[in-house]
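User: Sequence in, structure out. Go.
Assistant: Echoing your sequence, followed by the structure tokens.
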Amino acid sequence: MKKGFTLIEMMVAVSIFVIVAMITTGALITISDVNRKAQAIKIAMDNVSFAMDSMVTNLREGSRFGCLTGPVADNPTGYLTSAASSGTFLDNECTSDGQGVIFKSERVGSVANYIIYRFKNNGGKGSIQKASTGSTQYVDLTSPEVNIKSLLFYIPSLSLSPTPRVVIVIEGEVPGKTPTKFNLQTTVKANF
């Protein structure tokens, strides 16, 4: 009598091994995809947080806020020149549909520097943009990996508050197989 495994026992053992290996491989692939998506979301949110922090810092050290309603022109020169020469667009409140904000920067070392933040929709792909005195074009603050759906500014009644404030609301998504949506909101009170 020979000792060993029969053909059927070997086939059952190999089949069980293959099933376990397939389940394990599927789980590892899923974990890898989830990790990749989490990393992409983290990078995108870090980018949006950087843009929000930049806006908050500059707004906090600003004065003479003005709200730009409707689509903001692609060339910032007109807004910046009018703000510097005649104060047009400044001290302008808005309670809805502020697509951009313009203000005078009071940062140390800045001489009559005006800044604009705006939302730009590039055919379904949105971004947050900035321009300042001397600029002839806007600069993107958000990376292409982030799709900003809307950026709204609210400047409540400037006459009722001794310290102006600006409310910023951002809605966007991180694209992918399943896009991840996000909403951010903050209120900034000026120090000046």
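User: And one key feature?
Assistant: Helices lie at 7-60, 77-86.
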